[in-house]
Amino acid sequence: MLLALLFSMSVALLIFLLCFGFIQKYVVPQSTYQKRLNSINELNTVDATRLMNNMAINREQEKEDLSFYNRVIKPLTDKLENNFFELTPASLTDTIQHKLTVAGLKQKLSVGGFSIIWALFVCFALYFAYRYASYHSLPLMQTALWLGLGFIVGGSLPLMILNSLITKRQAKIVKQLPEVLDLMCVSVQAGLTFDAAVKKIVQRTHGPLIDELREALDDMSMGVARRMALKSMSNRCEVPELSLFVSSIVQAERLGTSISNTLTIQADNMRERRRQSIKEEALKAPIKILFPLLLFIFPALFVVVLVPVILNLIKQF
């Protein structure tokens, strides 16, 4: 009963926030026509040509601002994310933010948004656990156990999905790193600087590693030192191979050695590491295929081989 009450209260709160955002946008609107009147009143202090260009840009922005998503849904989701961000414990905020960064979701999902998803998973898991317990008329102790199991499953599932996304992204980075190093080596040997080679690769290829290199280039264009930008990229990815590459580039920059030779050595090293990882996966294949053999193939073989023998023995006796 308490869980049903909490679920009803959460639904009522969501409906209230939707109505509140709708009223805020329609009852107390910020008129776009008033903005145009104010810009006309300031005509004597602003250059007319620049004003006309700004008005053309503002018309395009106003078309986007007039959409239902920008007027109602986006402010509501932003407010919910801020509220859930404030409710999230401080000890978990940094951990969740770091995991979102490593997963490549920093620009798509905030800590508050992830907290909303986590809360929804927990609520739905508790609701289904309660419905199952009430449908089967379980005792109080078993109902409490089912609710605890639902809470654990609902709370663990978003983290498991996030960790899975991190693992897949790191695997893509490791797979793409040797190719990117070969392109860097060829570009630097052709006469380009390291930054120009990275910029050329970023313009012509795509992938998670390219996205990180693009962000590192943006940091360097804003005045961040190269070694700091590369170290930040390494910390965002948490890939040992990438950390080794960044350390070699930083060391070559400090010692003044040739970047071309360093890239050549690192490219050979990464190809060898990739070759060793593929051999390792190939050696694991017989062990991994053992369980499907035992579960699916051997029982069918036993049926095909032993059933006729058993039937013949039954007929003889």
TrEMBL record:
It is a multi-pass membrane protein. GO terms for cellular component: plasma membrane. InterPro entries: T2SS_GspF_dom. The chain crosses the membrane at residues 6-28, 109-132, 144-166, 289-314. Keywords: Cell membrane, Membrane, Transmembrane, Transmembrane helix. The keyword Transmembrane helix applies. It is found in: Cell membrane. It comes from the Bacteria. This is Type II secretion system protein GspF domain-containing protein. It comes from Anaerovibrio lipolyticus. The lineage of its organism: Bacteria, Bacillati, Bacillota, Negativicutes, Selenomonadales.
